[in-house]
Amino acid sequence: MKKMGTIYFFCGKMGAGKSTKSKQLAIDKQAVLLSEDEWLSSLYPDQIASFEDYLKFSAQIKPLVKRHVQNILSVGTDVVMDFPANTQKLRKWFLDMASEVNASHQLIFLNLSNEQCLRQIAQRRNEQPDRAAFDTEAVFTHVTKFFEAPDASEGLNILEFSGKE
């Protein structure tokens, strides 16, 4: 039987470091890195002005991304997904993506406090001024209302980091 790749995906509040960690993991694992932000900004330039816009366009690319990732996994290549897995519904999407092609998965849960995330968001605003409009405490507060921490009952392989590492 052919060896399948492993899909790695991240759960963590806005500012927890998902993108930073995904880039490093892709290097460490010599894996393909797929970034939702890159896909969305390439496919829908200047069209995402609100969280609702993000949700709409994110949903539109999911079927294409799923097929693409499954094709990569099926040739034995690991995939690191810089796409948020911040709700039970989103995590089920990742889990189904893996299980449908008999690939393994790893959810990396960046379990940082709101204060830690807000500090990192402030730092990101300084380093990436183009993100300042979206990287605000108001957006963080709004988005965090939807956040659901992963639970063992979801059947996921969870690796948790508390930010104290």
**Beta strands, count:** 5
Model regions low in confidence, pLDDT < 50 over at least 5 residues: none
What's the shape? globular
Mean pLDDT: 93
Task: Identify the CATH class.
Answer: Alpha Beta
Q: According to CATH, what is the topology?
A: Rossmann fold
Number of helices: 6
> What strand line-up does the widest sheet have?
2-3-1-4-5
Structure notes:
There is one protein chain. This protein has 6 helices and 5 strands; from the N terminus they run βαβααβαβααβ. It has about 160 residues and is an alpha/beta fold. It has one domain (about 5-160): Rossmann fold (3-Layer(aba) Sandwich), CATH 3.40.50.300. It has a 5-stranded parallel beta sheet, sandwiched between helices. About 25% of the residues are buried. This is Kinase. Keywords: Kinase, Transferase.
Structural features:
P-loop_NTPase; 6 helices; transferase; single chain; alpha/beta
Brief overview, please?
This is Kinase. The chain has helices at residues 18-29, 36-43, 51-74, 88-99, 114-127, 137-144, and strands at residues 6-12, 32-35, 79-84, 104-110, 158-161. It is α/β, with parallel strands linked by helices and 165 residues long.
